[in-house]
Here is the input.
Amino acid sequence: MAAFDPWDPAFVSDPYPAYAELRARGRVHYFEPTDQWLVPHHADVSALLRDRRLGRTYLHRFSHDEFGRTPPPPEHEPFHTLNDHGMLDLEPPDHTRIRRLVSKAFTPRTVESLKPYVDALAGDLVDALVEAGGGDLLTDVAEPLPVAVIAEMLGIPESDRAPLRPWSADICGMYELNPSEETAAKAVRASVEFSDYLRELIAERRKRPGDDLISGLIAAHDEDDRLTEQEMISTCVLLLNAGHEATVNATVNGWAALFRNPGQLAALRADHSLVPTAVEELMRYDTPLQLFERWVLDDIEVDGVTIPRGAEIALLFGSANHDDRVFADPGRLDLARTDNPHISFSAGIHYCIGAPLARIELAASMRALLVRAPTLALAEEPVRKPNFVIRGMEELRVEVG
Here is the structure.
C-alpha cells in the first residue's frame, strides 16, 4: 500500500500512477490508516454505487453501538445535524422522499431557463479577466460563476453572498480523510452560521414567496408530505456545496490539464464544437471528487474477499476514471473522446441532481474563455491544494496577451 498515501504531496500532485498500481494488484485493498477498503476498478465502483447493501449512512438501520462505531463527539453536532439531513447522506425511505420533493423545485426546465444568465455572467467575468490582462482563473472566473448561479437560484441577495464560499469550504473540509479538530471546529462554526442565515431567509420566503428555489422548496409537497425546515436548510447547503465545489475544481483542473496538453488546447480553440465532449473528458481526466465513501450494511464479497458489516468502503472515482479496461489510453487527454462513461457525478440513487447545471456552467465558462480570451496562457506554475478527496487548486494564474 506504499503507493497510496493521501497525505503525501507527491501523491496528491499526481495520484494516477499509484491508482494504476492498485488496480494491477487487485480489486480491493484494506488501508489501515483510515480503516477503509479501497476499491479502484471502474466496474466495481460502478456496481457498488448501486448496491443497496451499502449506504451513505447506517443510522436508518442500526445504532452506533449496533454497528460497532463510535458516535461523533457532541461538539460536532451542528455539522452532523446539517450534513445528516441532506440527500447525499440519507438512504431510503428518507432519501427517496426528499429527492422527490426537491426534484419538484429543481426541475430540468428550471435549470435550462438559467442558461442565458449563466452565459451572460460567464462572459462578464471573462471580460473583466481580459481587461485586467489576466489574473487568478480560480477567484476571477471559476469560483464566482457557480456561487452566483446557485445563489441566484436560491434567491440569496447579492449583498449576502460573500460568506457563501468560505462557509462551503469550511464545511467541505470534513470530507477529507481523518480531518483534524481544527478542521472540525471550522466546519461546526460554518454550519451554525450558514444554518442561522438560511433559517431567517426561509422565514422571509414563507411570508413573501418568490420564484426562487427556496420558495419552491417551501411549496413542494406530495399529498400531506413536505420538507421539514431542517431538510430545507440541509438541501440548500448541499446544493451550494456540491453545486459549486465540483464545478470550481473541474474548471481549474480542466484548464491546468489543457495548458499541459497544448495540442488538445489548440484543437479545442480551432473547433468549439468539441466543448461538450471536452467537458466530459476533463472531468474524467482529473476528477474533482477523488473518493466517495459507503458503509457496509450487510456483508459483501469483492474478488473473494469478504468485507463485513460495519466496515467502510472508499470508492476511488479518480482511479475508476483511469481504468484501462474501460477507457482506451486513459492517461491521454482526448477532448474528442465520445465513449466516456466516467463516474464523476456518481451513480445509482445518489447520482448528482445538479449534474445538468454543472455541465451548463462548465460549458459556459469554457466557451467564454475560448471566444473572449483566445490567447489565454499560464502565467506561473499552478498551485495545487493539499486536499486529496476534493481535488483542486489554490490558484491558477493566467495571462491574456
Q: What stands out?
A: The radius of gyration is 21 Å. Residues 229-260 form the longest helix (32 residues). The chain has one domain: 9-64+75-400. The mean pLDDT is 94.
